[in-house]
Design a protein that fits this description.
This protein has 71 residues and is mainly beta. Helix content is 0%, strand content 44%. It is elongated, with a radius of gyration of 14 Å.
Length: 71
Protein backbone atom coordinates (compact mmCIF):
# COMPACT_ATOMS: atom_id res chain seq x y z
CA UNK A 1 0.00 0.00 0.00
CA UNK A 2 1.04 3.58 -0.59
CA UNK A 3 0.20 6.82 1.18
CA UNK A 4 0.24 10.32 -0.27
CA UNK A 5 0.67 12.92 2.49
CA UNK A 6 -0.55 10.35 5.06
CA UNK A 7 -3.68 9.48 3.05
CA UNK A 8 -4.00 6.03 1.53
CA UNK A 9 -3.67 5.98 -2.28
CA UNK A 10 -6.66 4.09 -3.64
CA UNK A 11 -5.52 2.53 -6.91
CA UNK A 12 -9.06 1.22 -7.50
CA UNK A 13 -10.57 4.71 -7.76
CA UNK A 14 -7.50 6.69 -8.85
CA UNK A 15 -6.94 5.35 -12.36
CA UNK A 16 -3.67 7.28 -12.89
CA UNK A 17 -2.08 5.52 -9.89
CA UNK A 18 -1.06 1.88 -10.17
CA UNK A 19 1.19 -0.48 -8.30
CA UNK A 20 3.67 -2.40 -10.42
CA UNK A 21 5.42 -5.17 -8.52
CA UNK A 22 4.94 -5.22 -4.77
CA UNK A 23 6.65 -1.89 -4.13
CA UNK A 24 6.59 0.40 -7.21
CA UNK A 25 3.97 3.13 -7.45
CA UNK A 26 3.49 4.47 -10.99
CA UNK A 27 1.64 7.73 -11.66
CA UNK A 28 0.49 8.25 -15.25
CA UNK A 29 0.17 11.81 -16.60
CA UNK A 30 1.71 13.30 -13.48
CA UNK A 31 0.24 16.65 -12.43
CA UNK A 32 1.30 19.47 -10.15
CA UNK A 33 -1.33 18.26 -7.65
CA UNK A 34 0.60 14.97 -7.35
CA UNK A 35 3.39 16.79 -5.51
CA UNK A 36 3.54 15.20 -2.08
CA UNK A 37 5.40 12.93 0.27
CA UNK A 38 4.81 9.26 -0.59
CA UNK A 39 5.32 6.35 1.81
CA UNK A 40 5.21 2.62 1.04
CA UNK A 41 3.59 0.48 3.75
CA UNK A 42 3.57 -3.23 4.36
CA UNK A 43 1.60 -4.79 7.16
CA UNK A 44 0.28 -8.07 8.44
CA UNK A 45 -1.32 -9.25 11.68
CA UNK A 46 2.04 -9.11 13.48
CA UNK A 47 3.49 -5.77 12.45
CA UNK A 48 3.59 -2.81 10.11
CA UNK A 49 6.62 -1.27 8.41
CA UNK A 50 6.88 1.99 6.48
CA UNK A 51 9.47 3.33 4.08
CA UNK A 52 11.06 6.69 4.55
CA UNK A 53 8.99 9.42 2.89
CA UNK A 54 9.89 10.14 -0.73
CA UNK A 55 9.15 13.66 -1.90
CA UNK A 56 7.75 14.02 -5.41
CA UNK A 57 8.28 17.44 -6.98
CA UNK A 58 6.75 18.17 -10.38
CA UNK A 59 8.86 20.52 -12.49
CA UNK A 60 8.02 21.89 -15.90
CA UNK A 61 4.98 21.46 -18.04
CA UNK A 62 3.63 19.33 -20.82
CA UNK A 63 0.91 19.53 -23.44
CA UNK A 64 -1.96 17.06 -23.16
CA UNK A 65 -3.70 15.27 -26.04
CA UNK A 66 -6.33 18.04 -26.06
CA UNK A 67 -3.71 20.76 -26.34
CA UNK A 68 -4.04 22.00 -22.76
CA UNK A 69 -0.87 23.05 -21.00
CA UNK A 70 -0.39 21.49 -17.57
CA UNK A 71 2.27 21.71 -14.88
Amino acid sequence: QWEKNRTLVNTDTESRFKIESPWNLVIDNVMKSDEAFYVCMAKNEADEIRSRPAKLTVIGMYVTDTGQVSF
